[in-house]
Specification:
With about 350 residues, the protein is α+β, with helices and mostly antiparallel strands. It has three domains: about 1-50, N-terminal domain of TfIIb (Single Sheet), CATH 2.20.25; about 55-95, no CATH class; about 100-345, Nucleotidyltransferase, domain 5 (2-Layer Sandwich). The protein is about 30% helix and about 20% strand. The chain has eleven helices and eleven strands. The protein has helices at about 45, 120-130, 135-145, 155-160, 165-175, 225-235, 250-260, 275-290, 295-315, 325-330, 335-340, and strands at about 20-25, 30-35, 40, 65-70, 75-80, 90-95, 185-195, 195-205, 210-220, 240-245, 260-265. It has a five-stranded mixed sheet, with helices on both faces. A hairpin with a 2-residue loop joins strand 7 (about 185-195) and strand 8. The termini are far apart.
């Protein structure tokens, strides 16, 4: 029985003008479209004699034609459309080549088991350290004067450092429930010192919720560090644009990893500025100055991670009507859930 189906060109959807163009190596009838010149065999997919053709390179998102590899870099590949009239180019990241950010390399305890002091004493000391500008010696003095609890300042320092994985696990549990699909994300970097050596802290903040999405502590200030930062937060949401300063290290990572509009602030008189994250840097530096630098990379990484947790989930912001950034992003927990997750806001 003859097959009764309408022949259609898979490229231009032509239904009328065709030429019979011989047969392929599997014996299937081939046709040549008289409109676009495309050759195809309608029966090839029905018989499935071999593997279908898969393009090794992506398809042009503008005209739909094939693309070729224009430049191959270590962290991304640049593809360009084969059609000279189109000439569109895209940047495709290489996830295997991008290094993990420092915020994923925390070390310490994930619970309060086998601790000499009660949990409420430990949480009080940690909150006094991250919510204020107190030093470890001042916190030990306050605990001894107000609560009649004798704790060494070294012990308090260990508490503030070793429980970073615990708070990080709480943040990872709550962040998928929050909404960060805002108009803009702001990215910037600032300088911190570890044993007198300059390190760069890469940060990215959501404009509508003031939520610090992630950080990356690195010795270098170049494009691979921006790749690590943006690749770690790309699953959290889709912003309308990413706002940065004029530093060129963000140009390719924003295009290839997030694929959104990149706004580079040219002047303080522009309508869109990067003052939001500069304000965050000011709050961070006010807390950081009391430390007079960090002792090691691991302790700095842990301390910054817990500072961001308290900034996002615990500390109320006057600019947000007394709410935390997590609450503005949609976090609504019961009193029992707050006690379980050691949250008080």
């Amino acid at each position: 029985m003859a097959k009764s189906y309408q022949i259609c060109c898979p490229k231009c959807n032509n239904h009328q003008n065709f030429y019979r163009y011989g047969k392929d190596k599997y014996g299937n009838q081939k046709y040549l479209c008289r409109v676009c010149g495309h050759q195809f065999a309608p029966d090839a997919h029905a018989d499935k004699p071999g593997k279908p053709r898969v393009r090794p390179y992506p398809t042009c998102p503008v005209c739909g034609k094939a693309m070729f590899l224009h430049h191959d870099h270590k962290y991304y590949s640049n593809y360009q459309c084969c059609d000279k009239k189109c000439g569109h180019s895209i940047f495709v990241p290489k996830p295997a080549a991008v290094t993990a950010p420092s915020m994923s390399k925390l070390s310490g305890k994930t619970d309060f088991k086998r601790m000499r002091y009660p949990v409420h004493v430990i949480l009080t000391a940690i909150s006094m350290f991250y919510l204020g500008k107190n030093s470890f010696r001042n916190i030990a003095l306050i605990l001894r004067t107000v609560m009649n609890i004798k704790v060494s300042h070294t012990t308090i320092s260990n508490w503030c450092t070793k429980f970073a994985p615990l708070f990080q696990n709480i943040a990872l549990e709550l962040m998928p429930t929050l909404n960060f699909n805002s108009d803009e994300w702001h990215a910037d970097e600032t300088v911190v010192k570890i044993r007198g050596v300059k390190y760069y802290l890469w940060l990215i903040v959501d404009s509508e919720t003031r939520f610090a999405l992630g950080f990356h502590l690195s010795r270098h200030r170049d494009s691979p560090q921006a790749f690590s930062l943006l690749n770690s937060v790309k699953h959290l949401g889709k912003p309308g644009a990413v706002v940065t300063d004029r530093y060129s290290a963000y140009k390719v990572p924003v295009k290839s990893v997030l694929g959104v509009k990149h706004i580079r602030v040219q002047s303080f008189r522009d309508d869109i500025t990067n003052n939001l994250i500069e304000c965050f840097n000011k709050q961070f530096k006010a807390w950081y100055k009391t430390k007079q630098g960090f002792a090691s990379f691991d302790s700095a990484n842990n301390l910054i991670s817990v500072f961001l947790f308290f900034y996002n989930f615990v500390r109320p912001h006057s600019a947000l009507d007394g709410l935390t950034p997590a609450q503005v992003a949609g976090l609504n927990l019961s009193a029992r859930s707050k006690r379980k997750l050691f949250l008080v806001a």
